[in-house]
Amino acid sequence: MATSADEHFVTTVDNVMEPTCWGCGLLLILPSYTPTFKCGWCGAITSQNIWKQESKYSCWRRLRDRCFVCVLLVFMLFVICGGVWAVYPVIFSISYFYGVFHLTIAIVLSISTLSTFSLAAFCCAGTPPSIMWGSYPLVGSGDLENYTFCHYCSKPKSPRSHHCRTCGICILDMDHHCPFIGNCVGAANHRHFITFLISTVVSTIYVAIMSINVGLQIWPPLTLSSHNRLHGSSTDMALTIMREIILALLNSAELLSTRGLLLIYLFVACISVNVGLSVLLWQQLCFIYKGNTYLSHLASQGSEQDGVKDCQNLFRFFGCSYSVSRYLPIIRTSPKTHKK
């Protein structure tokens, strides 16, 4: 049994079937129990799985993502506007130059955080390249090597793509789906996402420091009620002092203005957000250093397949085509000279 003049497949199988390659349309004779097969012409992988449909919860996940995006935008605007209102009148009262300097820093960090968030949330995460498929004369040899067919969106899926059931599309080099930006993190917006994390971590540290600085300026003086009754062992004295300081802080907090209470909230919120985002940023940078994404890391668990660990991965990720060593003096390769 032969197919064409160029390719000849001769076989004798009892229980046979003739599956059609979705990539080039050629027929192959395979055993009926074969779950998948790879086309010998175009290299596409065909699966015998049943047709899949989108989950009925996809619309609810998209609605959840939109709510998260709105809440995060409101929180960022609240921190920016509330911080300006609570901090900078006190800063400008100290020194005009001091106030202008810190206001410039705040404007730069705010624009950087909001712009990178918008790019990560509202830009396409990256779709697989559009290729020709389905017809033997148009599909050349090896054009669809290791391509699979996505049964959700009915399109070819490259080996570097993953289908996101929340977004409903295949994403190129998908790292993960982040509900807080309402978008996937993929080839097109991964750099914007990392820049957003860096900008947010720096901004929260700056807001926390400024909150402490201004809070010390406007906090009411502490009054210790039992400083004359400190006696006994050193442990008892330390516990008494700590108890008196806590009570004095609580009593003085009642005298704080709205500005002071807002500064306390900004400090606690920024520290909490900073801890979580710092862990996420460190994890992302570790994956980039290893040449992986989060999904590829999960897929390689239990196997020895792993990316090449190199700082060049970080330079390439951030758009640096040349390593820093190219701009440094060449020491290791230069010939050694000896003075007589």
Key structural traits:
disordered N terminus, about 350 residues, elongated, about 45% helix, two-stranded antiparallel ribbon, two-stranded antiparallel sheet, 7 helices
What can you see in these coordinates?
The protein is mainly alpha-helical and 340 residues long. It contains seven helices and ten strands. Strands 1-2 form a two-stranded antiparallel ribbon. Strands 3-4 form a two-stranded antiparallel sheet. Strand 7 and strand 8 form a beta hairpin. Helix 1 runs antiparallel to helix 2. The longest helix has 37 residues. The chain is elongated.
Short synopsis of the structure:
46% of the residues lie in helices and 9% in strands.
Largest sheet: 2 strands, antiparallel
- Percentage of helical residues? 40-55%
What is the strand content? 5-15%
Q: End-to-end span in angstroms?
A: 83 Å
Question: Which structural class fits the helix and strand makeup?
Answer: mainly alpha
Show the helix and strand layout.
Layout: E1 16-17, E2 30-31, E3 36-38, E4 45-47, H1 58-94, H2 96-122, E5 148-150, E6 155-157, E7 161-164, E8 169-172, E9 176-178, E10 183-185, H3 190-218, H4 234-253, H5 258-289, H6 294-299, H7 311-317
Antiparallel strand pairs: 1-2, 3-4, 5-6, 7-8, 9-10
Helix pairs in contact: 1-2, 1-3, 1-5, 2-3, 3-5
